[in-house]
Amino acid sequence: MKKYLFSSLLALTAVALVACGYKAVGGGKKTVCDQQYALCSAAQCVPNPDNPDEAICFCTVLEGKSLGKSTCDQRVPHTDQQGVRHVISTFSFGEASTKKVMTCPDGTPWTDCLDQPCVVDPLDPSKAICMCKIVRTGSFQTYGGDCDQSTCEKGYWSGATVESNTEFTQFLKNALELKQSPVKFCAIK
User: Whole-angstrom Cα distance, residue 165 to residue 168?
Assistant: First the structure.
């Protein structure tokens, strides 16, 4: 019970800190930056009890090259006066070696975390808590769910539209000068 209360308190505190830290920064052209970022491509999320259009997502903190629609200056990680570390959620192949991409059908809610604000978990600096937009229409792709499509309707996975995922994967592959994409897809059942 104590662990649940602590986790809940940490998530609610993160919501407040993210809201006060900075807003989403997307909207520009695709840009690859080399810095610390949050990767939410397989993140499990829960609806924000204070805002029905947002979800609280539990992401991974990585260092290196990632792709977003904000400038590198807009994505610079920083630590605020209270000692809270802020990062931005972007896209990378950071989970492509261990996770496959699953497609979920239209009508299942998902979250769009690209260029969204996050705070680094002070108890585990390899994790971030991010505020992401809930999307309730369209099919989507996610690195989450372990290829079990029944999870599409049971939870809120961070994802992207099929078109966006294809476009970002191709752009990042070219930007990193890879001969082939490291992305693997779940078997279609």
Answer: 5
How many Å separate Cα 3 from the centre of its chain? Answer: 24
Number of Cβ atoms within 10 Å of the Cβ of 42:
23
CA distance 86 to 82: 11
- 125-151 pLDDT, tens per residue? 999 999 999 999 999 999 999 999 999
Hey, is 46 helix, strand or coil? strand
Instruction: Please give the structure tokens belonging to residue 138.
Output: 């369209």
Q: Which helix (H) or strand (E) is 134 found in, with range?
A: strand 127-135
Instruction: Round to whole Å and give the CA distance between 16 and 174.
Output: 38
Please state the pTM of the whole predicted model: 0.85
